[in-house]
Amino acid sequence: MTLTDQQPLGSPFSAVTTAEDIVADRDLFGRTAVVTGGYSGLGLETTRALTAAGARVVVPARRPDVARAALQEVKGCEVIPMDLADLGSVRSAAAHISDCLDRLDLLMAVAGVMATPERRVGPGWEGQFTTNHFGHFMLACELYPLLAAAGGARVVVNSSAGHTLTGIRWHDPHFRTGYDKWLAYGQAKTANALFAVHLDALGQGDGVRAFAVHPGKIITGLQREMALQEQIDRGWVDEHGNVVGADFKTPAQGAATGLWAAT
Q1: What pTM was estimated for this model as a whole?
Q2: How many independent structural domains does the chain possess?
Q3: What is the CATH number of the domain that holds 116?
C-alpha cells in the first residue's frame, strides 16, 4: 500500500475521543460481542463501552478469576476460560460460545502480548505469533458461522505500528535461528493486519466486514514484560512509571478507534 491508497474517512472524532464518546449515541441492545482481553487495558474500556450501550459481551480470559474480579461491576458481560496460546483451549471456548449464541455481531481481537522473552508453545511455535495471530485466527474461523448468521457482523483486530518492523518471516517464522523479541512482535502485528484484510475480502458476501486498527500509543498491561529501564530509555515513562512520552493516549482514548470501526 502507498500513501495515495489511503483516504480520509471523514470521521468527526480525534485522537482525544474516548470509548464513551464513540458509543454515546449508539443503541446496541440485542447485539452480542466477543472481546478478547476484555478485562484489562483497551479491552476493559471496550467491554465497558459496549455494555453501557446495551450490548451483551462475552470475555474469553486466560485468567478467568482475575477477569471476573475486574468486571464485577460491569453488567451484561460473561467471562469464559480461554488461552489464545493453546489452540485446543480456543476451540473449546468457541464451542461454548456457539452453544450459547445463534449469532455474533462483533468480534473484537484486543488481547495481545508484546516484546516477551522467548517462549515456545504448542508444537514449538513462537509465543507472540501464536498468541497474537494464531489464537485469534482460530477463534475467528471457529466463530465464523455465528458472524455470518448476524447479517452485518464486524471483526476488529488490533494491530500496531510495530508491523513496520518486519513482514512475515517465511524463511523462519518461529525464530528457530535466533530470537528477537521486537521482530517477533512486528511479525505478529503484520499477521494481524493481513488477516483482517483477507477476512474482509472473504466475508463480504456474508455481510462480514473486518478491520485492522492501530489504537495509538498507550501504556497498559501490554508492556508488563518490559523492564522499567527499557521503557524509560524509549522515552515512554519516567523513573516512577508515569507516562511522559509525546502523543500517548489513555486506555479510554485508545479503545475508541476499535469501537468506531465496530459500531
Answers
A1: 0.93
A2: 1
A3: 3.40.50.720
Angle at 50 between CA 45 and CA 52, to 5 degrees: 95
Count of H-run helices and E-run strands, the chain: 9, 10
Give the 3-state DSSP-derived string for 116-128, with helices as H, strands as E and coil as C: CCCCEECCCEEHH
Q: Are 224 and 204 in contact (CB under 8 A)?
A: no
Provide the residue range defining the domain that includes 157: 18-262
Which of the following is catalytic: 39, 144, 179, 185?
185
Is 179 a residue of the active site? Answer: no
Give, for all 263 residues of the chain, the pLDDT tens digit: 456 677 777 888 988 999 999 999 999 999 999 999 999 999 999 999 999 999 999 999 999 999 999 999 999 999 999 999 999 999 999 999 999 999 999 999 999 999 999 999 999 999 999 999 999 999 999 999 999 999 999 999 999 988 999 999 999 999 999 999 999 999 999 999 999 999 999 999 999 999 999 998 887 877 777 788 888 888 888 999 888 888 889 999 999 999 999 99
Contact 46, 259 (CB under 8 A): yes
